[in-house]
Amino acid sequence: MSNLENILGKSNLLDLSKKLFNVVTGTDDFHEEHEINLDSKILEAETINFVLADGLGSENLKLAESDYLKDSNSFSVNSTFPSSTNVALSTINYVSKPVETSILGYYLFDRQEHGLINALNWNKENKSLLKHPDILDRQTIWTLLKTRGITSNNLQPRDLVDSALSEYIYKDSHQIAYRDTEELNEIVSDSSILDNRFNFIYYPNIDISAHVFGVGSAQWHEEVGIFEMFIKNLNSTQSKKMYTLITADHGLTNISNENRIYLDYEEDVVIYGDQRSVYINGDETKVKEIFKNVPGHFLNSVEMRHLIGEPINNLNKRIYPEHCFLVDDGYIIFPKHLKADLVGYHGGITPEEMRVPVIEIKNF
Q: Interior CA angle at 1 toward 252 and 297, to 5°?
């Protein structure tokens, strides 16, 4: 399990967020467990931009045709476990471990009330879980910025602005919606929009192309090129001293058709989480029988708690998995609730999925 050894105790997105927000706020409010050495120029910046390029992992970035982003890639850190969008975004915006945000994976399972939950696209009934007392009063970074009088903007795709997840992780932020990259370019070209101490920009298109067409496809290269042009535009819009940090929530790995495993199981077993870092509830003997032909590794209880953390409250206990299975490189499982055949996937712990870049660009 060399991949597991490569992520335990290593710097990750939470460490990066702590470093960045300590600089933004001019404090040391967030204890930095692992050292993150950002360019010292960030201390001179009047405006700090944080761009989250969904799906642009470090290993994926090496395939990019242009050197613009690669040349500014200072180093890499690990994503969260699992390497999923909702887990990473929650970690960043709450500057907290996933077990503290209660967003533990793509799918959750609530033993007490809601059952299986798509924790990226919540429905009307189960989004009430996000109002649970164990997490309701947790502060987002946006709450802290607002309290400190630090000006900020949060630029999001229009279709995500009113989603349950956005309402949870971006609580107290000033959101600006954009329709597409063209409109996003228009928005950032107005220098007054970025005339803040801090701006966050979420950019989803690279992830979409990797899922549908695969990492390294012509469509993926096109989207990376469009993103590079956006970053160049962003870097030229402000006369103030501006520092931009670009990272990702995860990378992706392409899965061949012959390595897709569709699982058959009874209702007394629940399979959820992610398709490459799988959570399971049910009798251990039955679970191991279901997974006997799946290449991979069951985590023991110590490994599980190292990666997920200890359940810290009643809500955690309701959604904490009984078992966790890591699917081997190149393979993916399909539980009953997931049918879509994509090309690129994430959620696992390979370097392609876990390693994300720290790209630093300055206009001074």
A: 80
SS3 66: coil
Across the range 291-299, mean pLDDT stands at 96
- The span from the CA of 101 to the CA of 141, in Å, is 13
Does residue 349 contact residue 3 with C-beta atoms inside 8 Å? yes
Distance CA 274, CA 128 (A): 22
Q: Which residue has tokens 């023991």? A: 300
Could you give phi then psi for residue 327, rounded to 5 degrees? -75, 140
Q: Which helix (H) or strand (E) holds 169?
A: helix 164-169
**What integer pLDDT is reported at residue 2 of this predicted model?**
54
What sign for the dihedral angle of Cα 185, 183, 62, 52? positive
Query: What is the Cα gyration radius of the chain?
Result: 20
Local structure of 129: helix, strand or coil: helix
Across the chain, where does the E strand assignment appear?
47-53, 73-78, 107-110, 115-118, 152-157, 175-178, 198-203, 242-247, 253-254, 260-262, 270-273, 277-281, 296-298, 323-327, 332-334, 344-345, 355-362
Distance from C-alpha of 7 to C-alpha of 185, rounded to nearest angstrom: 36
Q: How many helices (H) and strands (E) does the chain have?
A: 16, 17
What 8-state DSSP symbol labels residue 149?
T
> What tokens appear for 133 in the block?
């007392």
Closest by CA to 163, choosing from 118, 102, 199, 197, is 118
Query: What integer best gives the mean pLDDT of the chain?
Result: 95
- At 312-341, the pLDDT tens digits run 999 999 999 999 999 999 999 999 999 888
